[in-house]
Each structure stands twice: as structure tokens, then as C-alpha cells.
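re the bet — no i am not wrong, look at it urself. input seq straight from the record:
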Amino acid sequence: MLLTAGCATNPATGRSQLSLMSMSTEKEIEIGKSMFPQVLQKMGGTYPDKELATYVQRVGERLKSASYRSGLNFTFKVVNDSTPNAFAMPGGYIAITRGLLTHLENEAQLAAVLGHEIGHVDARHAVQGMQRSSLLNIGLAVLSGATGTSQYSGLINTSGEIAATLVDRSYSRDQEEESDRLGIDYMAKTGYDPNGAVELQQIFFRKIEGGKEAGWLEGMFRTHPFSRKRMEQNQEYIAANYGRTPSRSKSSNSEFLLITKRLRDSRAGYALYEQARMAEKKEDDKKAIALYLQAAAAAPDEALILSHLGIAYLRAGDLVSARRHLQHAARLDSEYFQTQLGLSYMYLNEGDAGRTIQHARKSFNLLPTLEGAYLLARGFDANGETEKALEYYRAVEKTDPRSKMGKHAAARIVVLEGNK
């Protein structure tokens, strides 16, 4: 698709701005709706706490009532990722990580995070970023409705690329300052103390001054460049526009602390979980399992920890332990692609083709991956469903012909086509 230059009106400021291609609100929503679930899955899935999810959506809904884009139905999610961060996608899809939430102290600070992200959506910063990269073409291609093998191979190729690019995109200084001001306005208009935005940035400043927590540099400060000057500008903006503001609501702080208690209680467990992930990257599976077990003991009933513990046991060939932890993880949260992928591998090893297909299909629907397509092919192959097996084998072979799975898929294609 050829992008054309033109001008579009910034919905938040009313100013005309350069736009590589004018995008309708409907198309923006369509792209965000398609990509947002995949981004969440890539980062660990939505945090499985219904009370927390309802609370964060409610805070976001309150703020969005002051938004300049009444045609958007904003969605707010907590993503199960330890890196402190928050992000906004086209169409009003906003997420805050578990890692950032654990550092917040009150509802006003949460409102500051969500208000800032609403500002990015209102000002169409995410759309501008997509238009200036090849990502817009990728997104539109996914929505165009390719069919057959190309559909599956295209989904496998693009899901990870889209997720990585959207979450890792860094905003400019001007975009950050504009979203700061918009977020402060939304807070004031909806009854929040706008000084919560300054409190939030004071937390950021302390993290920069400390300089010891790498997660902040990898997440929040890489995608949302921060400086002391920006914090001082916000203090001046609040003083000039809102003067004296109401003090924090003790009741809202009590509710915030109660609803986020589970997150804070699980921090030690997730610190061990991150150490286990590092051990896996170094291919030290024995150490990884030991750390996952410590993490599960420190933070019981955390589905993400149990899922990766089960997969680690699966990789070690301990199917009994893998089954126990993966099934426990699925009972706590059945909507995470890695858990379903692990269960599919487990049932494939046990010779249960039906359940291999069932869990691989669930995983692939949550996030299209090479492994999910391969397991579907293996399941259909074992179940005697040759045409379906060939469809997925071809997608695997086309996506990554040099990988072990790609080579096995190519070999099975020859055999199955020869048996027709």
C-alpha cells in the first residue's frame, strides 16, 4: 500500500498536523482491536484478577468521560508483566503492567498513568507512529483477510512483529509533554487531584536517581522518556491552571490499596520468577526449575509462574510434574497461550491427538505462533485428518523452513502427499 502525505486535525488540540495517510476512526479501532489481544498475550496475558480488572476499567472510564474523542469506547487492561510500563494502542486500547501497578501508592497516581495514555490516544500519537513505519501496512494486511496457508503463515509472522514494535515504540519529548498536559486536564475535570501526576513523576525521578532497577530503563523510561524538567513543567502547569486542588480521597486510597494488595504480596515471587527466566535464557534448566519452585512457594496460585514451571518440567521430560503445574495454571487462567501450548505438547507426548488439537487450537487463537501451528499439524496428522495436517504443515514450512519444526513439516508434507 502506498502512503500519501496530507494533513489531519489533532482531535485533542484542534491543530492541523502532518499525516502520511488519513485514517478513519473506524479503521483505527479495527486495527487496535485486532492487535491489542496479541500484544497482551506476548507480554504474559491479562492479569487474572476480576476485581482488579473491574477497578482499573472503572478508573479509566471515569477519566475517558473527559476525552476529546467521544466516538471511542476505551478499554483498560492490566498485563501480567513485571517490567514497569504502560502503553496505548490505536482505537483506545490501553494497558498498564503489573510491574508498574505495584509501585503506585494511590488511585490518583493510577489515574495519572491512565490519563496520560488516554492523552496519547486522543492526540493520535500511536497512529502517527504506525504511519511513519511499515507497521501500518502490516496491520492493514492482517485485516485484509488473506486465506489458506498464506493466512496462517502471515498471522504467525506478524503477531510477534506487531507486538514488539507497538510496545517498544518510543514517544517524542513533545508527545510526552502533550500527553502529560492532557492527562492532568482529564484528572482535574473528573475530580482527581492533578497533583497525583506529579507524585507519579516523583516516583519516576527516584527510580532514575537510584539507577539500580534495570526494569525501569527497559520499560517505562525507554518508551516514555522522562526528565526532571518535565516534572517541573507539570508542577507549573497545575499551579497556573488549577491552583489549589482538593486533597486526596482517603477512601479511594483505601480501596486502591485493598484491591492491589495481591499484586504487592506477589512481588517477591515474581522477582524469583524473573530470575528463573534468566536461568532459562542461559539454558540452565535445573536452576530454572528450582527458582520457579521458590517463586511458586512465595506467590502461590499465580498462573503465570505455574505455567512456566510446568513448561520447564516438560522440557526436562518430567511429564507428571508438567501435567500437575500446567493443569493448575489452566484452572487459574485458561486464557494464556503458553499454558495451552504446554498442555498441547504434553498431550502430544502422551499420544492423545484429540487433546493435542484442542489445546493447540486454543493457544493459536490466543496468539498465532509457529509452535501452535506445528502442534495443530501434529495433532491432525496423528488423528488421520490429512488435509488439515497438510494445511498447517505448509504454514510451518513456509514460515520458518530452516527450523527443526520447518524441516519436519517439509518431510511430513512429502509423505502425506505421497500417500494421497
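see?? The domain at 266-418 is CATH 1.25.40.10 (Serine Threonine Protein Phosphatase 5, Tetratricopeptide repeat). told u. also Confidence is low (pLDDT under 50) at residues 1-6. so pay up
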